[in-house]
Amino acid sequence: MDRLDAMAAFVAAVDEGSLAGAARRLGRSPAGVTRAIAALEERLGTALLRRTTRALHLTAFGETYLATCQRVLADLAEAEEGAAREQERPRGLLTLTAPVLFGARHIRPVVDRFLDAHPAVQVRLLLLDRVVGLVEEGIDAAARLAHLPDSSLIATRLGDVRRVVCAAPAYLARHGMPQDPAALRAHACITTGAAALAEPWRFGPGPDDARGGRPVPIRPRLAVNGSAAAIDSALDGHGLTQVLSYQVEEHLAAGRLALVLTAFEPPPIPVHLVHPDARTAPTRLRAFLAFAAPLLRARLAGGAAIAAASAHRT
Questions:
Q1: How far apart are CA 18 and CA 225, in angstroms?
Q2: For the domain bounded by 163-264, which CATH number is listed?
Q3: Coil, strand or helix at 54
Q4: Which phi and psi angles does 217 have, rounded to 5°?
Q5: What is the CATH number of domain 92-158+271-313?
Q6: With left for phi above 0 and alpha for psi between -120 and 50, is residue 247 left, alpha or beta?
Q7: Contact at 8 Å (CB) between 74 and 86?
Q8: With bands split at pLDDT 50, 70 and 90, how would you rate the model's confidence at 213?
Q9: Helices (DSSP H) in 130-226: which residue ranges?
Q10: Stretch 206-219: mean pLDDT, rounded?
């Protein structure tokens, strides 16, 4: 035993009133406790205890040394508890990523609240419209809007978003409401994406359609490489655009945009936070997952309610 262990054996023997009691308390053999105290006495050059068949008695020096041992062991225990608390306190750099608009509208507000709650954490939030390799690019967690492939990552389900077609009420008043995806050929369409000119819009089965989802080729009146610009053009009454529901929920709630072709929407897109195995994750990541997941579920549920109410109005 080292000196601290020997001190702990000495204090336990006094507290328990016997070497056997000290051994039970420390989970050691009586002989081991006896050897530890004897070694301590040899190091000090004086006796600490007088042993009889029925009891242990402190020597005069033993009484003084007992108080010293108790103080040293108490200080050590307090230091160890402090270190454990510090280790459990979320701190350090947390790196997150999300699609640009989803991150700006949903992840960033939650991150702000998390930072308020955990002042020792710093966050790097990368808003990127591409799939980021978490391990390869040093990312702690990512928001993914997709049906996820099998992987070693852990996925926390947050909710769903919808792929919707919308237009300004003024545009629909002038050009009418399309009744099925084929009617889009007679409408001004605003498409998005790097390959917008060739990319079809996706639809699901209609109310009387058993053939399943299908792509519908679109001849755009305007093609832009960003959803924000397409939405602005739709708000100005220049045509219909297909975007994700969270991107237009505030405009739907305010009545600036209206949904069309809701009966033909493709299946909802699941939203997840993906991250490495939480059992080996740093405290800051585990704290963020526990903090962010319920808030993001509530935000997505609120957006779904807005989209549902807009669809009901149209």
A1: 81
A2: 3.40.190.10
A3: coil
A4: -60, 140
A5: 3.40.190.10
A6: alpha
A7: no
A8: low
A9: 134-137, 169-175
A10: 65
